């Protein structure tokens, strides 16, 4: 891969040209005003992370893969509170405190045993070879949990539940699962376990952040204490900021930020780098800088402790949001100023070209940003007026664009509008799949759009790139 780290001096602007959408709404089939308050999902469904009845269109001429319009028997009335995405699995939390899980389950990250998984044969988009996955849940299955949940989070191969009592429970990861304690409504054994090392501290959870790109988490207590844990890869990358410590699987570490007494207010994680921002808007980073994702103008390999870089362009400004892709970073400051750096080879930085940016560069935008969300190599932005914008890799449909051998759109290098209905409140991205949704006080039904030539009982008749929302 060519290393293009040319410095960019000029401000970078958004594209205003529209593109064809290929997005799947979830909403109320009985509501004739179905262009309001819908929920959308698109992207890869290779491991069932988008739900059931997926018709995989694989091994075509350009090696891409696509997921078809999804139809399943997910509970007809489902008030969503939160959606969390791992690398290849999805967890939904409802207002009724129910969990719905689907996708990859090789490490029990769905909280249910592998013996109820289904086998599916897929074709690798890279090698073209047939692969049989034996740890795959293609239906959203309900898992009951005996405590009230206030937050869910997914790492690449784990699911975490933070209760209203500030206890943390988890499932998945490489450690053997012990002491299953919960049983869901189908009388299937739940594999959810208490995170004893945290629960024994008897502290309150203020921030809990995971990365869908790797297996790790960063936890900030109400008192401002920072705790980290993760896989050996996460430790070796330096992203946990613990220095040269011997890796011990499952060990809980406390981390301190140098030269500050201010509590963290923002935590964001990439695949090998971490960002922490304090209440005094001090910017700390740790981990790999091989693609300049830390914003240093020269590649320094990696940082193994959290450091506060100098000469960043937003020093002294109030930092409002930080979002990390696998190896790129966005920072949003007061005044609606957006800065980006890192690997933009797939167009994820939205700067109009495929290059790496070796320092935080201002990106001019014509609207006020409400929310930033990044997948592995793509970005989706929500404006305060309800509009969404997208840029980056689209080989698996993860930014909702039509991509077929006859209509190839493998990536977009400049932010362009993503036309969805009003009412979207949140965006969440996995490695290569995306959910746009609205937390609802009322119930909704999943449905198909009103197209007379689509049979809603046969998902194979309507692959998603054929469904166009005008």
TrEMBL record:
Sections of the chain in a coiled coil: none
InterPro entries hit by this protein: Ran_GTPase-activating, RCC1/BLIP-II, Reg_chr_condens
RCC repeats by residue range: 37-96, 281-335, 386-440
GO cellular component: cytoplasm
Molecular function terms from GO: guanyl-nucleotide exchange factor activity
A Pfam family hit: RCC1
Annotated protein name in UniProt: Predicted protein
Lineage, highest ranks first: Eukaryota, Discoba, Heterolobosea, Tetramitia, Eutetramitia
């Amino acid at each position: 891969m060519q290393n293009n780290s040319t410095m960019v001096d000029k401000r970078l602007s958004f594209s205003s040209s529209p593109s064809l959408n290929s997005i799947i709404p979830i909403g109320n089939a009985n509501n004739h005003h179905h262009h309001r308050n819908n929920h959308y999902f698109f992207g890869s469904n290779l491991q069932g992370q988008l739900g059931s009845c997926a018709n995989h269109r694989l091994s075509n001429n350009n090696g891409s893969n696509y997921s078809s319009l999804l139809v399943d028997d997910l509970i007809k009335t489902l008030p969503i509170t939160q959606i969390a995405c791992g690398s290849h699995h999805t967890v939904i939390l409802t207002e009724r405190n129910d969990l719905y899980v689907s996708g990859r389950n090789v490490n029990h990250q769905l909280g249910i045993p592998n013996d109820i998984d289904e086998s599916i044969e897929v074709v690798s988009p890279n090698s073209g070879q047939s692969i049989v996955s034996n740890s795959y849940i293609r239906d959203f299955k309900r898992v009951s949990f005996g405590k009230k949940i206030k937050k869910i989070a997914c790492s690449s191969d784990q699911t975490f539940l933070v209760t209203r009592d500030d206890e943390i429970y988890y499932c998945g990861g490489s450690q053997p699962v012990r002491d299953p304690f919960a049983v869901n409504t189908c009388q299937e054994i739940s594999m959810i376990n208490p995170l004893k090392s945290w629960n024994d501290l008897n502290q309150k959870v203020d921030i809990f952040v995971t990365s869908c790109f790797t297996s790790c988490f960063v936890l900030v207590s109400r008192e401002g204490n920072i705790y980290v844990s993760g896989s050996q890869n996460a430790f070796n990358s330096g992203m946990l900021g613990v220095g040269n410590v011997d890796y011990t699987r499952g060990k809980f570490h406390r981390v301190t930020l140098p030269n500050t007494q201010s509590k963290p207010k923002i935590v964001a994680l990439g695949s090998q780098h971490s960002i922490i921002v304090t209440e005094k808007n001090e910017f700390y980073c740790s981990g790999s800088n091989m693609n300049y994702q830390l914003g240093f103008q020269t590649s320094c390999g990696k940082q193994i402790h959290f450091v506060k870089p100098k000469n960043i362009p937003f020093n002294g400004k109030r930092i409002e949001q930080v979002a990390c892709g696998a190896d790129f970073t966005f920072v949003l400051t007061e005044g609606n100023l957006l800065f980006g750096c890192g690997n933009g080879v797939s167009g994820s930085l939205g700067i109009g070209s495929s290059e790496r940016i070796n320092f935080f560069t201002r990106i001019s935008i014509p609207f006020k940003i409400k929310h930033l969300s990044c997948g592995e190599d793509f970005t989706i932005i929500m404006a305060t007026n309800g509009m969404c914008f997208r840029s980056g890799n689209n080989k698996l449909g993860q930014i909702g664009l039509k991509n077929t051998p006859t209509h190839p759109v493998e990536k977009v290098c400049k932010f362009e509008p993503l036309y969805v209905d009003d009412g979207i409140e949140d965006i969440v991205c996995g490695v290569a799949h995306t959910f746009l949704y609205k937390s609802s006080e009322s119930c909704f039904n999943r449905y198909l759009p009103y197209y007379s030539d689509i049979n809603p009982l046969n998902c194979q008749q309507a692959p998603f790139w054929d469904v166009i929302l005008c």
